[in-house]
């Protein structure tokens, strides 16, 4: 069985009053993944800036 199918099966067994908590946890995981992606992009920007801010780069893109 796929993980998604197992999870859906388990959700069916969760009492109604716990579903809000489960939804909250799911939204937390989504927000955490988004935050980690943003942090990675910011960290990469510093490294990539060294290549982006070169005269050769400006020259290569000047006709666009």
Question: How is this structure best summarized?
Answer:
Helix content is 86%, strand content 0%.
Helical fraction equals: over 70%
Element-level helix/strand string: HHH
Q: Biggest sheet, open or closed, and with what strands and sense?
A: none
Secondary structural class: mainly alpha
Radius of gyration, in angstroms, nearest whole number: 22 Å
The total count of strands amounts to 0
Description:
- With 64 residues, the chain is mainly alpha-helical.
- The chain has one domain.
- It contains three helices and no strands.
- It has helices at 3-13, 16-52, 55-61.
SSE topology:
Blueprint: H1 3-13, H2 16-52, H3 55-61
Task: Kindly list the characteristics that best describe this protein.
64 residues; 3 helices; single chain; mainly alpha
């Amino acid at each position: 069985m796929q993980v998604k199918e197992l999870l859906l099966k388990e959700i069916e067994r969760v009492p109604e009053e716990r579903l809000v908590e489960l939804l909250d946890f799911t939204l937390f995981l989504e927000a955490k993944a988004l935050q980690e992606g943003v942090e990675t992009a910011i960290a990469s920007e510093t490294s990539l800036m060294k290549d982006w801010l070169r005269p050769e780069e400006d020259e290569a893109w000047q006709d666009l």
